[in-house]
Amino acid sequence: MDIRVYRISTCHWCDKVESFLKRHDINCRTIVIDLLAGDEQEKAISESYHLSKQRSFPVTYIDGTCVIGFHESRLRHLLKLPSRRVEQEESELEGVKGDTSVLLKDREKLETFEKMRDWLEREAKSHGYAINPDQKVVEEILTGLAVNEKRYGYKACPCRLATGKYQMDCDIICPCSYCYLDVEKNGRCYCSLFVSDRFVSGDPSLPEYLPDTREHSGVLEKSAGVIKEGIAKVAVETPQTLYKIHMKVIGFMQDLADKNKAREDFLKIAEELDVPSSSVQCD
């Protein structure tokens, strides 16, 4: 079988796909895109996007069929594996975490993780989110965020491929511009770092698989004026956390070349809508 896994080193869902395949003795070719360079990286990005039409990971190619994310039931079906049974499986990732572990030295990693945990608790409280109760998942995601912050200077989503250019990545800086609606609708953000009370309580109505809202929202095709008009219509009823999302996206679209000008635009639009400046996310 032709099985390929396109992944990035910071993505914990990518780790889960590789761990799943390894547990079932399935051989695959792994392409770690963010650790490639030059023409080799461009080729891998092109291949992955051609197969999935998305910029999020993992992308698993199985004999002509593409699976995006860690969609276990879909993987089992395509690989003709039996349905998932209740069994005691080792939860360790068995060394398939790419090169993330070597990007941060052990001591630095511990200190960074403590700072990231403090940041996470502040963000969750500020936005009204709960934190995923699975501490292992949280640690994996925070590690990926720390690696991206070291690489790019900002906490780019570890499950999506960042460009390294703030103007092009600002909608996926954690918590991303799609987090609020994902948590409200699906109980968790795309990475599953921020979750809702429904998720914590184990609501069975929540979807098992979460598609990437970024690829389906069409928000990048809208003009700033259209979004501004939409905000004005719901200005009275919308929680302050939603303003942060829209303001970040507006800045992203209004000026792709000047971070400072984008910040000024954030505040100007907020003032016109009588939104408190403290509710506008300008970082």
Write up this protein.
- The protein is of the alpha+beta class and 283 residues long.
- The protein folds into two domains: 3-78, Glutaredoxin; 103-279, Ferredoxin Thioredoxin Reductase (Alpha-Beta Complex), CATH 3.90.460.10.
- 48% of the residues lie in helices and 7% in strands.
- It is built from 13 helices and six strands.
- The strands form two sheets. The chain has a four-stranded mixed β-sheet, with helices on both faces. Strands 5-6 form a two-stranded antiparallel sheet.
- Residues 86-103 and 218-257 have low confidence and may be disordered.
In brief, what are we looking at here?
The chain has 13 helices and 6 strands.
Describe the oligomeric state of these chains in a short phrase. single chain
Q: Main β-sheet: number of strands, strand sense, barrel status?
A: 4 strands, mixed
Integer average pLDDT: 77
CA distance, first residue to last residue:
46 Å
Q: Please state the second-level CATH architecture of the largest domain.
A: Alpha-Beta Complex
Rg, Cα atoms, Å: 19 Å
Low-confidence stretches: 86-103, 218-257
% residues in beta strands: 5-15%
Q: Write down the secondary-structure element order.
A: EHEHEEHHHEHHHEHHHHH
What would CATH call the homologous superfamily of the largest domain?
Ferredoxin thioredoxin reductase catalytic beta subunit
Give the spatial strand order of the biggest sheet: 2-1-3-4
Which word captures the global form?
globular
Please tell me the total number of domains: 2
Specify the structural class.
alpha+beta
Remind me, CATH topology of the largest domain? Ferredoxin Thioredoxin Reductase
Helix content: 40-55%
Enumerate how many helices there are, as a single number. 13
Highest-level CATH class of the largest domain: Alpha Beta
